[in-house]
Model the fold of this input.
Amino acid sequence: MAEIVSEKVAIIGSGVIGQYWAMIFASGGYHVSLYDIDQSQVSRSLTAVKERLERYEQQGCLRGQTSAAEQVVLISGHTNLTECLKDAIYVQECVPEVAELKTKVFEQMDEMLSDSIVAASSSSCLGPSMFAGGMKNRDRVVVAHPVNPPYFIPLVEIVPGPWTAPDVIQKTQSIMRKVGQSPVTLKSEVPGFALNRIQYSIINECWNMFKEGILSAEDIDVVMRDGLGPRYAFIGPLETMHLNADGIVDYCKRYADGAYKVGQTLTIPPVQYDVPTA
Done:
């Protein structure tokens, strides 16, 4: 049985992402304080976490070296922010993707942050400078963006602000690896981070091909499901290039002209997607 660590993690926001984070940290042996403003919401979330952990254990997909029952007792609920943050070494914010709301939450936490704590946001598109720039302790803030559902998809994008302290990045990387996640670290903020920039590039081209009548929606999904998807599930695009020819340099020599010509035909939709109204 894995040893239960004495360190504590605080999670702000008890929605689905907050619940999954609680499960991930508990699987790594951390004590977890789950916070929300409404007691009934906290209670519902704790019940959902318990039921999910028990179900995963029955299905053989529970993470960690301890039982579901042992992980459940590591997770407590709170409606008092001060009590939730007390003695925490790491905070994971999980409120909705609204800059004003995240700003409010981080401002509330500001006076409670020590010079050794990490305050991470689960934001998928908002960099730290968009919600933490006015904080006294902004150097303790970083984004640690999970991919939904994070319990089964290990990638975490770590995005520092221009003033994030180096030790915050290092601690976040270390904690993520300890609980079984796969962190990647951006050197600076960029809209959409890494995953969404790549994902939206694919979606934009899928949309263009459908809109221009080149492929049906069903066939577009087949291209991904039975082509690129399985390939990239095992190795990434750069590693694929490296293994495809006699190394990545040779690949570029062979296919650069074709890639350039195809690239010249790619377009980004100039307007928002047309969304049908009910």
